[in-house]
Amino acid sequence: MVLRNGDETTIFAAYRYIFHCNDALEAEIHAIMQGMALAIQHSDMPVIVQSDSSNALATLTDATLSRSAYGHLDTEIKAHMVAREFVPCKIGREHNRVAH
Predict the structure, then answer these.
(1) Residue 50 within any structural domain of the chain
(2) Is the separation of the CB atoms in 32 and 55 below 8 Å?
(3) Which of 57, 63, 75, 85 is most enclosed, with most CB atoms within 10 A?
(4) Whole-angstrom Cα distance, residue 92 to residue 59?
(5) Which domain holds residue 62?
(6) Does 100 reside within a domain?
(7) Are 51 and 12 in contact (CB under 8 A)?
């Protein structure tokens, strides 16, 4: 997760090891959730959430995953969205060099 301000200057970067993860979608959703929590703690501005996974970004805009195995993560993401404005932004995999 990388938090940047409006002029693209990095405020901080963080990573976390996920011990039990079933698939890539769960890892993406978990990373979005953790990133949102950190952004709430370290910034008071609206946040653009960038990801190369459109399925993971769907948790920010609809209830597609609320009844799935990832429902608990979807619920936490929705709770974070009450505290701050989060704007989902789909980026191409080639633009997501930070994560790789």
Answers:
(1) yes
(2) no
(3) 57
(4) 18
(5) 2-95
(6) no
(7) no
| 76 belongs to a structural domain | yes
Domain count, the chain: 1
Return per-residue pLDDT of the chain as tens, 100 residues: 777 777 878 777 777 788 888 888 888 889 888 888 988 888 888 888 888 888 888 888 877 666 777 888 888 888 888 888 888 888 876 655 555 5
Q: Is residue 35 part of a domain?
A: yes
pLDDT the model gives residue 99: 52
Instruction: DSSP for 2-47, please give it.
Output: EEE-TTS-EEEE-----SS--SHHHHHHHHHHHHHHHHHHH--S-E
